[in-house]
Design brief:
The chain has 448 residues and is of the alpha+beta class. The protein has 4 domains: 1-156, Beta Polymerase, domain 2 (2-Layer Sandwich), CATH 3.30.460.10; 158-225, Hydrophobic Seed Protein (Orthogonal Bundle), CATH 1.10.110; 235-393, Hypothetical protein af1432 (Orthogonal Bundle); 395-447. It is 53% helix and 10% strand. The protein is built from 23 helices and 13 strands. It has helices at 2-16, 26-33, 49-59, 107-111, 136-141, 150-153, 158-170, 176-183, 192-205, 210-218, 227-230, 247-261, 268-277, 282-285, 299-313, 317-329, 332-336, 342-351, 355-367, 376-394, 400-405, 412-426, 431-447, and strands spanning 20-24, 40-45, 62-66, 71-74, 79-82, 85-89, 97-101, 122-124, 130-131, 144-145, 173-174, 287-288, 294-295. It has a 7-stranded mixed sheet. It has a two-stranded antiparallel ribbon with strand order 6-7. Strands 10-11 form a two-stranded parallel ribbon. Strand 12 (287-288) and strand 13 form a beta hairpin. Helix 7 packs parallel to helix 9 (192-205) and helix 15 packs antiparallel against helix 16 (317-329). The termini are far apart. The mean pLDDT is 93. The protein binds adenosine-5'-triphosphate (ATP) and magnesium ion (MG). Adenosine-5'-triphosphate binds at residues 25-26, 39, 41, 114-115, 119, 156, 158-159, 162, 201.
Length: 448
């Protein structure tokens, strides 16, 4: 509330100088929707820019984050303070805009640069009056995402992803005309960071991330940035295991199941990306034999390759290790829990970067079918097995120090013995016995 108190202070001084200060953008929308909001954006009208700077200087240390666009921050506060401006696209990229700051432009003209009617609401900080120049309140009531202005909407292609992202977060529908305009836009010049931000919001903030991809599909806009998801459309799956239809439908159901579990994930973003990418490989491995049997053997290995290329394109190197590990192993828990081979399960957990998230992914994958079955029993078995693995890891096992005391020196053979020892440990062989094995092996080699 510290930020809000500062916003009120600014508003009071602006008002004393004949101007008005509004809350704008997401925070007005979220308040009407009864949702929590993080950032406060304010727009100051009807005073000169120099006067605003003077007021801000009297209240704190001014950071000019975009002084030439009339955008400021105060040090220590999370408030974006802006003056009304007009934007006109001068190129294909997100940032290729000509910007004119004009504090006297009027409320409607200022709101015109915003993307959607629900994001174009303005609320006077001091009086509480809401200025709704484009019917945003009705659209919020009708759960509709509608662009503000026919001419300017297409100037920023990021709005295509923003529409899909908001649709998934709020479970709103996108107005048909907005869909039509969006379907004509060229998305290729967008910066990957901006696209990723929208994807991230859909994956982490939405109860139904499926709506993000389904909206892009309705706009015919999957191909530029999410070709791998588009490639899943129409890919068959065996009907007896997947009554929900093609791999695209299955992936959408898995994403929605995963969204319910992500609060429990150790790394929610990696987990959600793995849910999105886990079956990418089915697009290239799925075959139908002469009896009509559908198979996609080893698809998880192809999924790894395709996911890696996808993450490289979005420059997400830091997430790669965990996402690829989850994608590679996603089938294993559900294949192995009923075989109940303790040794294989121990080896699986050992390969896992984050076994807890793998169990959640296996759950989402299993429930992401039309034929929802109860997964709790399976999860219980998996968690018990993981607990056994963790207990096993607490028991002493052969270390480099042990090998040195047996007279070995670090090198290729040394690492082989370490791996060999670890393998025996996973099978439950006690450390002393492992050491005896190794020592006997060394003696045998020396006597040859
Ligand atoms: P979120 O809850 O995701 O932050 P938001 O609506 O606050 O939603 P921001 O990206 O923080 O989204 O932007 C703040 C406001 O700025 C928006 O509500 C919208 O009015 C305007 N805006 C942001 N990006 C664009 C854009 N690409 N085109 C037009 N208006 C935009
Ligand atoms: Mg915001």
């Amino acid at each position: 509330m510290r930020d809000m108190d500062m916003a009120i202070k600014i508003a009071k001084q602006v008002s004393e100088n004949g101007g008005r200060t509004f809350l704008v953008g997401g925070c007005v929308r979220d308040e009407i929707l009864g949702k929590e909001t993080k950032d406060i954006d304010i727009e100051v009208h009807n005073i000169e820019i120099e006067k605003l700077i003077e007021i801000l200087n009297s209240l704190g240390e001014v950071k000019k984050i975009g002084a030439s666009f009339g955008v400021f921050n105060l040090k220590g506060y999370d408030i974006d303070i802006a003056m009304p401006r007009k934007e006109k696209s001068s190129g294909r990229g997100h940032r290729d805009f000509e910007i004119y700051v004009d504090p006297f432009i009027g409320y409607k003209e200022a709101a015109k640069r915003r993307d959607f009617t629900m994001n174009a609401l303005m609320k006077d900080i001091l009086t509480g009056e809401v200025i709704d120049s484009f019917g945003g309140i009705d659209d919020l009531k009708n759960k509709t995402i509608r662009h503000v202005n026919d001419e300017s909407f297409c100037e920023d292609p990021l709005r295509v992803f923003r529409a899909a992202q908001f649709a998934s977060r709020f479970d709103f529908k996108i107005d048909q005309k907005t869909i039509d305009l969006s379907s004509k836009m060229d998305l290729s010049a967008l910066a990957f960071e901006r696209v990723f931000e929208e994807l991230k919001k859909a994956l982490l903030k939405s109860d139904k991330p499926s709506v993000f991809f389904e909206s892009l599909r309705d706009m015919n806009q999957l191909s530029t940035w999410f070709k791998e998801v588009e490639d899943l459309i129409g890919v068959n799956q065996p009907k007896e295991h997947h009554p929900e239809g093609d791999v695209f439908n299955h992936t959408m159901l898995v994403l929605n199941q995963a969204a319910k579990l992500r609060k429990d994930a150790k790394d929610p973003l990696a987990f959600m990306l793995a849910a999105m990418c886990h079956d990418f490989g089915k697009a290239v491995t799925t075959k139908i034999d002469e009896n009509g049997k559908v198979t996609s053997y080893k698809h998880e290995l192809e999924s790894v390759k395709i996911t890696e290329a996808f993450l490289d394109r979005l420059n997400k190197v830091n997430l790669k290790k965990e996402v690829l590990n989850l994608v590679e192993l996603h089938m294993r828990p559900n294949q192995m829990y009923n075989v109940a081979k303790k040794k294989s399960m121990m080896r699986l957990w050992d390969k896992c970067i984050c076994p807890e998230d793998l169990i959640l992914l296996a759950r989402a994958d299993s429930l992401g079918r039309d034929k929802i079955k109860d997964y709790d029993e399976i999860e219980k078995i998996l968690r018990a097995s993981l607990k056994d693995y963790k207990n096993l890891m607490k028991k002493p096992q052969v270390t480099g120090k042990d090998l040195i005391s047996l007279g070995l020196k670090p090198g290729e053979e040394f690492s082989k013995y370490i791996q060999f020892g670890h393998k025996l440990h996973l099978s439950g062989v006690p450390k002393e016995q492992v050491l005896r094995h190794i020592s006997a092996d060394i003696d045998k080699k020396q006597s040859l």
